Amino acid sequence: MKLLVxxxxxxxxxxxxxxxxxxxxxxxxxxxxxxxxxxxxxxxxSTFYKSxxxxxxALGVARAIASRVATVLRARRFDGVFVQRxxxxxxxxxxxxxxxxxxxxxLVYDVDDAVWLAGEGASTNETRYPLLSRLLxxxxxxLRLLGxxxxxxxxxxxxxxxxxxxxxxxxxxPTVVSKEIWRPLPGKLEGAPLPERPVIGWIGTHSxxxxxxxxxxxxxxxxxxxxxxVVRVIGANESFELDGLEIERxxxxxxxxxxxxxxxxxxxxxxxxxxxxxxKCGFKQLQYMAVGVPMVTSVAGGARDFVVDGENACVASEPxxxxxxxxxxxxxxxxxxxxxxxxRDLVEAxxxxxxxxxxxxxVVARVLGR
Length: 370
Prior knowledge:
Layout: E1 2-7, H1 14-19, H2 24-29, E2 33-38, H3 42-48, H4 54-73, E3 80-84, H5 94-102, E4 107-111, H6 131-137, H7 141-148, E5 151-154, H8 157-163, E6 170-172, E7 199-203, H9 216-224, E8 230-234, E9 248-250, H10 257-262, E10 266-269, H11 275-278, H12 283-290, E11 295-297, E12 314-315, H13 319-331, H14 333-349, H15 353-368
Parallel strand pairs: 1-2, 1-3, 3-4, 4-5, 5-6, 7-8, 7-10, 8-9, 10-11, 11-12
Helix pairs in contact: 9-13, 12-14
């Protein structure tokens, strides 16, 4: 059987890479051929969120919209369609409507964020869409997609509970990594002594970097006390600053992704208290756990289901918690070891690609009628 996979972004984007692409080999072994068709190709994705490429991006989007017409015309040769977030970044769910209602193809809809919120991609309570942008982006189309789907795969229990209002069949499959690829460096699980300048690190995107404001006062206090450490920020804009703190900025690199997580000594995962954060799946926390990095984290969304304060992470519920927990992790090797080992054990047992891929395949196969 053949499955058409429609994604907003190419494999460079984590939502594509970890929500569907990493399961393609298992689907193929089950006799389901996967044909991927991202809206943005790799070249357009590399410039899409950067300034100075407006004309190039506009032309690229026009081509991408035209390509969706071709997708619909050739879709009869497929047995089902898998949509990750949305088939097109602009406009209503026309492609999905034509495929599911017009061609009667069974549809699996995958969501790993609360994309139905007006401020999709926002990391604050402020809506990012002026009226024209809102009309073009049509964030409410995700509600229509929930209704079109034969099955919704949600990245967290919270997302699944919302989706179940529109789709009778929902499945929770968290966003995970491979336990064989994402492994701790030697000494991490034993709480080995930290280097002379330990790395307190964060990895994310330009849209989530503002959340680091929650950690900034604690980092500044530790610096004022004379502690020497590196604040490493990976994936934020080149102009990103953190409350006057000296930080080490690095661009995100797919080739360096695992290494970047592995070489952090203490991770931070701050999240605002808002509806958008409650729609997150806790993926950053699981990435830290997979490579044995002890962390201080907020708890929201999917992280509520697996983060246990003092067992596999240090939870910061109040502003002073960031300072207290970071100081403890810098000083206490036994604490680092306990958190790292417990987090890694959890990933190996329940939150890895290897642990969930059979269930993922079963869901897709059921929708295709296998």
